[in-house]
């Protein structure tokens, strides 16, 4: 039977509750010097705030080599009563040193499978998804090799593949590679950051292909994409793709509004456009299916 693989073990999908389908408790990158999310006490405050607003599960998309702090996640989840799902995978090359990439380049699929089935770094905590990344309007050689490894890990485990789309672009290229060439079932692919490129035609084509569509995190470039998100979700729901939709906060720096903002400000706004029933499907039913394997 399919289950969500949380940091405390397998959980029945219908026990996840309200899900932030893409967020981060811990993350660091050389591209964001001085803006790391590394403090355990701060993570506890943010997770507690999310839980107090009715949140049940946070899916941390932080992949290998980016400060996941895996050993801290079980106690945070246990103490605060919020499920956490951790990720394996690899981000864009710019987020890593050349030395780190050289150390894993030839064993990516095995690394992903090990972290999904045996545990991460000797902690015994298993990952529950594979995080990879595309580029701006396309895929470079690093993205292609990483996605090939993710596809192999998906074939061997069934774990979903969550994809960072740079500024929301490249969704169809990702699907051409993962699903068209590598044989990944479209329902196992979660396309992230679609809210950052409010191209309703691309959204519709990705939904028609069978992928899951994540609208996750406020824009950090301008506000034009944010106020279009309710209309994008409504258009997809009206076209028959309500079961494809996911929401997240994507906290990546200390000043990101994040997961509490998702429930405190974004959800009430979306309720006006979508209604309570559809919003519950997006926050509860859809992620329960997306993250069960």
From TrEMBL:
GO molecular function ontology, one term from the record: hydrolase activity
SUPFAM superfamilies for the chain: Metallo-dependent hydrolases
Residues bound to Zn(2+) 2: 131, 164, 193
Alphabetical UniProt keywords: Hydrolase, Metal-binding
Modified residues (N6-carboxylysine): 131
Co-factor binding comment: Binds 2 divalent metal cations per subunit.
PROSITE patterns, per database record: PHOSPHOTRIESTERASE_2
Keyword Hydrolase in record: yes
Presence of keyword Transmembrane: no
InterPro entries: Metal_Hydrolase, Phosphotriesterase
Pfam families, A to Z: PTE
Residues annotated for Zn(2+) 1 binding in this entry: 22, 24, 131, 250
Cofactor(s) of this protein: a divalent metal cation
Family: Belongs to the metallo-dependent hydrolases superfamily. Phosphotriesterase family.
Protein name: Phosphotriesterase homology protein
Record gene name: php
